[in-house]
Amino acid sequence: MTQPAADAGNPTPGNPTPGNPTPGSPGARRPPARPAAEADTPPGTEAGVSPGTAAGAGPAAALLSEPGAAPAADSAPASGRRIPGPVWAALAIVYVVWGSTYLGIRVAVETMPPFLSAGARFVVAGLLLAAIVAWRQGPSALRATRAQLVSAAVVGLLLLLGGNGLVVLAETAVPSGLAALLVAVVPAWVVVLRRVSGERPGTGAYGGVLLGLAGLAVLTLPGLSGDVRLWGVLTVIAGTVMWSVGSFSSSRIPMPANPFAASAYEMVAGGVGCLLVGLGRGEQRGFVLAEVSGRSWTALAYLVVFGSLVAFTAYAWLLHSAPLSLVATYAYVNPVVAVLLGALILGERLTWPIVVGGAVVVAGVCLIVSTERRR
């Protein structure tokens, strides 16, 4: 599973990084302020990106820009202008890659323990991201105070252990498409958290929350009817709440100034947390590396490289180079992509609760996003 206007646009648990985010989802990436890790993430994302991201450059520019460069004066296309090709390319990456992370997770856990595989994914992705930041922007870009490191670790644990880790665990029992649709309700939880904290979301946002919860109720039916394991459905819902709390908190506590460094710290902290939980659950017992299938290894590599690094960089660049209302559309495109891929590649059944409940959830997310972008 963004904040105010962005509260609707965070990566999600399935998409870890930008620190998940979000109008939306928890399976690789979170909303405004600063990108935090996923992402798969994805079930927050903050408005900040690396200094020096220029509008016409391209998705990699956000991470590969030099430390001293100043942001372009006109970094987001005006509402009446034609949207440039690089923006559509970056959107396509976020749409397809983050939508596919749920499929990747499902394939990875076929022969890999859930928390251990998630932990390995995030630790590797976090270390790679930190190395790239140090290489391109200098070691000073990784500097952070103790308070900032603690905050990044807390957010990383909420997003990646509590949010994404629970989704990974649940996908051992529920279809990837259903998991993605359940995760899509994250923006509704974010609106609830904002209201509890004293903010006043628009009337449309409350309508979106009601639609999202109604869709959530319909999506729970497969678990109640025995078509899927109920504990898996409830585990995804718990993950969406954890992801929402992490996304909501990320812009309200001291975080590292460099958003990419923050995401790296979050991924490492969340990954270590997943590894410890996996060991605590005894996932290492009876696990033999030689028995892991080639497709599970491929899925894990895909989640690290594309779900946590490529899509994250594209998302961070979009936050700086495109209207937030356009970027936030990933929140209701990702679940559709996930459902289609699950049906086409894994043969997952599209039952009426999944179709109807998913449509209601996506409608609720659309209402929340459209309300926020008018504020």
Shape: globular
User: Poorly predicted ranges (pLDDT <50, ≥5 residues)?
Assistant: 1-9, 18-42, 44-80
Mean pLDDT: 79
Query: Which structural class is indicated by helix and strand composition?
Result: mainly alpha
Q: What radius of gyration results from the CA coordinates?
A: 18 Å
Features:
375 residues, 15 helices, disordered N terminus, 63% helix
How does this model look, in words?
The protein is an all-alpha fold and 375 residues long. 63% of the residues lie in helices and 0% in strands. It has 15 helices and no strands. The chain has helices at residues 4-7, 61-64, 85-108, 114-137, 146-170, 176-183, 186-196, 203-219, 221-225, 230-250, 259-280, 294-321, 324-327, 330-345, 352-373. The protein is globular, with a radius of gyration of 18 Å. 61% of the residues are buried. Mean pLDDT is 79; it is low at 1-9, 18-42 and 44-80.
SSE arrangement:
Elements: H1 4-7, H2 61-64, H3 85-108, H4 114-137, H5 146-170, H6 176-183, H7 186-196, H8 203-219, H9 221-225, H10 230-250, H11 259-280, H12 294-321, H13 324-327, H14 330-345, H15 352-373
Short description:
The protein is mostly helical.
